[in-house]
């Protein structure tokens, strides 16, 4: 079974531009979440989507947004890029199960550099 | 106080030894706990999940959970140089859905 697929893997953008990152979850997984990883702040939760609806949201400004499509694929968008947005953006998917658990599996990530 | 804290590294152990990684969390209502391993330049990969108090073993790895003490640990037996990586402790805030909080990670070096 294919894992979580993220595109693009590497990209360089200029301050003020916007960027869209794409994620295809593991087949059958309906929950997709996004994380930002930086050396200073570590791994931080951005938001989670389930059934095309944002279900949970982290503490990031409105410049960070996302969406999920009917096939569970997800995109995240960052507008008006700042130098501090340079990071590894990780997508994770989960097989929705009742109760506790819901292990997440990460994609390889998208490395974003803002210059 | 950070929500999830881990013992500061780097932690160095000789090959064949037991590596012990510790994690504490602040949200007493947390229900699910995870250990991920991350090699440099790579994404985190799941090692183990644990939901109930006590020990859970999987091969050379044993996770321990004590909800009363808000403490999670990971033991790696017979450590190998390939175990050298950063280990991330994660807690899911939500009982329904995903809202994971990760610790800062502990870098482990296994010396041949």
Provide structural commentary.
The complex is a heterodimer of chains A (115) and B (112). Chain A has 115 residues and is mostly beta strands. In chain A, 35% of the residues are buried. In chain A, strands 2, 4, 5, 6, 9, 10 and 11 form a seven-stranded mixed sheet that branches. A four-stranded antiparallel sheet of chain A has the order 1-3-8-7, with no helix packed on it. In chain A, 0% of the residues lie in helices and 52% in strands. Helices cover 0% and strands 54% of the residues of chain B. In chain B, a hairpin with a 2-residue loop joins strand 6 and strand 7 (61-66). The model of chain B has no long low-confidence stretch (mean pLDDT 93). Chain A binds chain B through residues 31, 33, 35, 42-45, 48, 50, 55-56, 58, 88, 90, 92, 94, 99-109, and chain B through 31-32, 34, 36, 42-46, 49, 51, 88, 92, 94-95, 97-105.
Mean pLDDT of chain B, to the nearest integer, reads 93
Which quaternary structure do these chains form?
heterodimer
- Which parts of chain A are unreliable, with pLDDT below 50 for 5 consecutive residues or more? none
Largest sheet of chain A: 7 strands, mixed
Sheet having the most strands of chain B: 6 strands, mixed
**N- to C-terminal separation of chain A?**
37 Å
Percent strand of chain A: over 45%
- DSSP, total strands of chain A: 11
Rg from alpha-carbon coordinates of chain A: 14 Å
Fold topology:
The complex is a heterodimer of chains A (115) and B (112).
Chain A (H helix, E strand, L loop, with lengths): L4 E3 L2 E4 L5 E6 L6 E8 L3 E9 L2 E5 L6 E5 L5 E5 L8 E8 L10 E2 L3 E5 L1
Parallel strand pairs in A: 2-11
Antiparallel strand pairs in A: 1-3, 3-8, 4-5, 4-9, 5-6, 7-8, 9-10, 9-11
Chain B lengths: L3 E3 L4 E4 L4 E7 L6 E7 L6 E6 L3 E5 L2 E6 L4 E6 L8 E8 L7 E3 L3 E6 L1
Parallel strand pairs in B: 2-11
Antiparallel strand pairs in B: 1-3, 3-8, 4-5, 4-9, 6-7, 7-8, 9-10, 9-11
């Amino acid at each position: 079974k294919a894992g979580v697929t993220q595109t693009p893997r590497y990209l360089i953008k200029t301050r003020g531009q916007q960027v869209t990152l794409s994620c295809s979850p593991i087949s059958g997984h309906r929950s997709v979440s996004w994380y930002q990883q930086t050396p200073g702040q570590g791994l931080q939760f951005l938001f989670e989507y389930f059934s095309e609806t944002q279900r949970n949201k982290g503490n990031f400004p409105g410049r960070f947004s996302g969406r999920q499509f009917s096939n569970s694929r997800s995109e995240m968008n960052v507008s008006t890029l700042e130098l501090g947005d340079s990071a590894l953006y990780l997508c994770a998917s989960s097989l929705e199960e009742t109760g506790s658990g819901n292990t997440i599996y990460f994609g390889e990530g998208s490395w974003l550099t803002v210059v | 106080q950070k929500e999830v804290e881990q013992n500061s590294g780097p932690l160095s152990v000789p090959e064949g030894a037991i590596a012990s990684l510790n994690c504490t969390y602040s949200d007493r209502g947390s229900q699910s706990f995870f250990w991920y391993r991350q090699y440099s330049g790579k994404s985190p990969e799941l090692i183990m999940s644990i939901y109930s108090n006590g020990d859970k073993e999987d091969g050379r790895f044993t996770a321990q959970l004590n909800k009363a003490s808000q403490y999670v640990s990971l033991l790696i037996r017979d450590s190998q140089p390939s175990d050298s990586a950063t280990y991330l402790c994660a807690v899911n805030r939500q009982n329904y859905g995903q809202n994971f909080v990760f610790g800062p990670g502990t870098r482990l070096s296994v010396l041949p």
